[in-house]
Amino acid sequence: MEVLGKNNVLGKLVPYLLVAPIVIWIAVTIFFPLFNVIKESFYNTGFVGTKGSYVGLDNYKEAVTSPAYWEAWTKSLVWVLGNSIAQTLLAFAIALLLNKPSRFANWARTWMIIPWVIPTIVVGIFWQWIFNGSYGIFNHVLMSLNLADKPVNLIGDNTWSLPVTIFINTWHWFPFMAVIVLAGLSTISHEIYEAADVDGANKWQQFWKVTFPSLGPITFALGVVGTLWSFNIFDTIYILTGGGPAGATTTVPVFIYQQAFESFQIGKASATSIITAFFLIVFVSVFIKYGTPKED
């Protein structure tokens, strides 16, 4: 009886022992840093590692009343919308084009992911070279075709820097979305399309009545993950423009970085981060509540 009792206790402990490593890992890598960010948001800490004085909610008040913070939100919304629209249209177009059996499609499915696997630092360097205002190949082409009488520095231009950065980021990440859409298309039965053909549906009607609804779960997941992913992109923007010129590409992540590590205001940057995280959580909650595909 004693042995059976020990076995029962051990049996109950095993599931907890198995999940314990991942729980500890999450606590160390997520909750501990998060707790420190929340704590620092109530202090006027400057440099990392120094101690600040308790200031209560002053950092939060300053963040929500800062015009620069809301200007960064405007840039972030343009950034997310631009990337979402461009990447979605491009990914669907490429996926539909390659969802047909042919030698070209088989070849293209393999090679189209090249932009995605290139490291971001490399992407930044060679697009800076292409768009360089002095020796970039883009200006060479424009002037050779008599489309411009003098070199233009698109990345360094207040008006064009954000659209060009969106274009570069779209070029970098659309293959990832195209691969996912292509995988979703492969799960749709050809019999459904054959039945639609019999009913007289044209290609456009087949896309909206068969293809798009069938990809509902995938587009929903891409909507949530892709939006958050796009919003939080920092490296591409910072490598290309550093948030400039004159703040033209200063999105919220870049703004927080500049506040923390260039202005040395860790306390204010922490409060700004918490407020931003709150808005993102609200967005995800609303998106999940109203955007979840309904099961037939």
Notes on the protein architecture:
- This protein has 296 residues and is mainly alpha-helical.
- The chain has 14 helices and no strands.
- The chain has helices spanning 2-40, 58-64, 67-98, 103-111, 114-117, 120-130, 137-144, 161-185, 190-198, 203-214, 216-231, 235-240, 252-261, 266-291.
- Helix 1 (2-40) packs across helix 14 (266-291).
- The longest helix has 39 residues, at 2-40.
- The mean pLDDT is 87.
- Provide the β-strand percentage band: under 5%
Poorly predicted ranges (pLDDT <50, ≥5 residues)? none
- Helicity, in percent? over 70%
Which structural category do the helix and sheet elements fall into? mainly alpha
Shape: globular
The biggest beta sheet, please? none
**CA(first)-CA(last) distance:** 53 Å
Round the mean pLDDT to the nearest integer and report it: 87
Number of helices, where a helix is a run of at least 4 consecutive DSSP H or I residues: 14
Number of strands: 0
Radius of gyration: 25 Å
The succession of helices and strands, N to C, reads HHHHHHHHHHHHHH
Describe, in short, the structure shown.
By secondary structure, the chain is mainly α. It is built from 14 helices and no strands.
Describe the protein's topology.
Layout: H1 2-40, H2 58-64, H3 67-98, H4 103-111, H5 114-117, H6 120-130, H7 137-144, H8 161-185, H9 190-198, H10 203-214, H11 216-231, H12 235-240, H13 252-261, H14 266-291
Helix pairs in contact: 1-14, 2-14, 3-8, 3-11, 13-14
Attribute tags:
296 residues, mainly alpha, 14 helices, 0% strand, globular
